[in-house]
Amino acid sequence: MATAIDAAQVTYQAPDLEVMERFLTAFGMTKAEGSDENALYMRGNGTQHHIHATHKADTARFVGASIEVATRADLDELAAMDGSSSVVESTEPGGGYEVEMHMPDGFRIKAIWGRAAVEPLDTRAPIAFNDIRDKRRVNGNVRVAAGPCPVHRLGHFVLHVSDHDASMAWLRERFNFLDSDYFLPPGQDGPVVGTFVRLDLGETLVDHHFMLVLQSERVGVHHSSFEVTDVDGVMSSHDFLLEQGYHLDVGVGRHVLGSQIFDYWKDPFGFRIEHYTDGDTVDASYQPTKFNGTASETTQWGNRPPLEFFD
Ligand SMILES: [Fe+2]
User: Does any domain span residue 184?
Assistant: First the structure.
């Protein structure tokens, strides 16, 4: 099994790259080196070369995701499995090597290794928060104007699949995933219809989820999710995207599973995309729980998703 160490990118197709670029720039990403009239690569303010790719095509479609693995040997191991490509040099900007695979519903998953890192962008530091116990902001203040908040990284993505168990088996065979929490139908003790998975990096802290795999009658991506600087980033960006006339989906609120403060938008092609901050971080010892709620009950406070959110 390969050791995944980070989410590298999500990949889409869309008919108009300029429209996508305008939205993703307002959303807080920056155009990356290597973009041209056929492909748009957008980066965050971290060291990853890019985190969101869109290829020009007549129809808008989610293609898949790329996952960064720890070593070249991880690629060799994946390449030896049924249905995998051999290890090839990546043709994407940033270079490196990759293995292409397809999940049971056809989502393309690429394992990548050796992609060049880039210099982080100079963006504002997180704002220290004062609570009743810790007053971290001393002789300072908060001044945040409405505007794009820098997206730091791709945190997770969520897939609707036709056979939850088959997709999970496929993933578990290939990557160091651990179950973080389970979705069960409301009021029932089973079956598991959704699994939140995280990376197993031992004692190293990781996000509560790297992926969520959900049983559904409608196969496709549910959303991709990007971590932003802090809660002021989420809120000030919320105001800015509304001012720009973009389509708010659900937000702002705080999730139950993973605890993130979230804000969901629709990109110009109808794909749901999330800003989040303050998610749970866990290590390999965290034990999964079972959640028997409706989509609305996945939110603790704020704007609740409608009942059909996960349909
Ligand atoms: Fe999310």
Answer: yes
Over the stretch 233-277, which tens digit does the pLDDT of each residue have?
999 999 999 999 999 999 999 999 999 999 999 999 999 999 999
- CA 265 to ligand 1 centroid distance, Å: 11
pLDDT at 83: 97
Query: Does 81 fall in a domain?
Result: yes
Q: Which residue has the tokens 């965050």?
A: 44
Q: What is the pTM of this model?
A: 0.96
Number of domains in the chain: 1
CATH number of 88's domain: 3.10.180.10
Quote the ligand 1 centre to 209 CA distance (angstroms).
9
Q: How far is the CA of 156 from the centre of ligand 1 (A)?
A: 7
Tell me, yes or no, whether 22 lies in a domain: yes
d(CA 139, ligand 1 centre) in Å: 35
Identify the three-state secondary structure at position 165: helix
Integer CA distances (angstroms), 134 to 130, 131, 138, 144, 208, in order: 6, 5, 11, 21, 25
Closest CA to 206 of 264, 259, 279, 140: 279
Please state, for a pLDDT cut of 90, what percent of the chain lies above it.
93
Q: What is the pLDDT of residue 190?
A: 83
Q: Which domain holds residue 207?
A: 4-115+148-306
Report the separation in Å between the CA atom of 275 and the middle of ligand 1, taken as the mean of its atom positions: 8
Determine the distance separating the centroid of ligand 1 and the alpha carbon of 273, expressed in angstroms: 8
